[in-house]
Amino acid sequence: MLTYLQKLGRSLMVPVAVLPAAAVLMGIGYWIDPTGWGSNSIVAAFLIKSGAALIDNMGILFAVGVAFGLSREQDGPAALSGLVAWLVITTLLAPGTVAALQGIAPELVSTAFGKIENQFIGILCGVVAAETYNKFYKTELPLALAFFSGKRLVPILTASFMIVVSFILMYLWPIIFGALVNFGISISSLGPVGAGLFGFFNRLLIPVGLHHALNSVFWFDVAGINDIGNFWAGTGIRGITGMYQAGFFPIMMFGLVGAVLAFIHTAKPENTAKVKSIFLAAAFASFFTGITEPIEFAFMFLAPGLYLLHAILTGLSLFIASSFGFTAGFGFSAGLVDFVLSSRLPMANMPYMLIAQGLVFFVIYYVLFRFLIVKFDLKTLGRDVMDEEVSITSTSGSDKHTALAEKLLVALGGASNITLVSNCSTRLRLEVMDSDIVNDAQVKAVATGLIKGSKTSVQVIVGPTVEFVAAALNTLIKNSYNI
């Protein structure tokens, strides 16, 4: 179950990855026309509406993206089936259709059905479509129906299954929606404290990749909060909308960079150069793009106490930013790019105070991390004997991604030990025959980190270039079987 939930978390990154496009379009549009929101400039209106086309349709993007990401071969028919699932359920559970099916007046239909086009439903559609694909994509029908065999059968079956799901949700969705709203209200009603709790649990769920499920409640229109959508659309309350985003900027742009400096300064002298080579690129990625996993995975298992402190400080940052009404937003993550794009949006409120807050958190992270590492002799990277790089000859030479993939293929036990290769934004997610065969030292010599989730599940932390490494690894595996 944990492995499956981790795969779901990975697949959620497929639709979330389109948010930077919306951020760029809307950010430039609002920059051009910060007061008229497009009414004073045709160019601004064009850009803002283009970005809104993505933000306002995240549900359908989740349906397609999750179906694609969870499908075994990440194939087009799976994505098409996700779209089919979405169209069926959102049509059958539209308020007018529900009124007709239940034989009641439209005004008596639960308000929950007015919110049926959301990311939760999108995820459900994606899961049903992906599981249908994985189960039936090789099914052969009788000769008379042979045209509909295999992958062509998947969208047809998905539509049939979603009719059943829609009937069930006609009665369950008002209950589910009510529970989600109550959960959101219970946190949001706490104001800055609720924002702090969200930040704390957001970081705690990173190791298992389930933080996206929590994020969807607060960032998207699942429980009526829709912090990202409202912030970029300018439909919220200035100083409040964005409270579940703003506090991440001081952490991702500054706090974790301070932690990196502490790791470098506390490393043994003979390991300093290697620690720098590992962490400086990760620090830049965190500051510039808001991708933090290469840093976090480098210490969350080596020093779990520090990671708990990191989660607490993240919650504190969101609490402080929310308390003072500092707001900024992001389309992808809380890095410099999103900060610059969002700082001129109508909902942005004293965003540059987040820079000042970030500088303070830089000092806090550096001082606390350095003190605790030295005080308790924590074995963070560079404070113990570092694994010597294992010499594995590359047969291709010129392609650095292929070279890394070749080293990982050997370290992971060879092609025969790997049954599935996929990736999220920074991690290789692998299904293997036996994780005990994986050579930990060899993997860690060429990658940022390694997680053995189960006997058949392994994750390798690579960084932002993971997509290219995954593609190269898949190619090597296929070539080894002469596929």
Features:
483 residues, mainly alpha, Gyrase A, domain 2, 3 domains, four-stranded antiparallel sheet, 20 helices, 60% helix
Walkthrough of the structure:
There is one protein chain. The protein has about 475 residues and is mainly alpha-helical. The protein folds into 3 domains: about 55-190, no CATH class; about 190-385, no CATH class; about 400-480, Gyrase A, domain 2, CATH 3.30.1360.60. It has 20 helices and 4 strands. It has helices spanning about 1-15, 20-30, 40-55, 60-70, 75-90, 95-100, 120-135, 155-190, 190-205, 210-220, 225-235, 250-265, 270-290, 295, 305-325, 335-340, 355-375, 400-410, 440-445, 465-480; strands at about 420-425, 425-430, 450-455, 455-460. A 4-stranded antiparallel sheet has the order 1-2-4-3, sandwiched between helices. Helix 5 (about 75-90) crosses helix 8 (about 155-190).
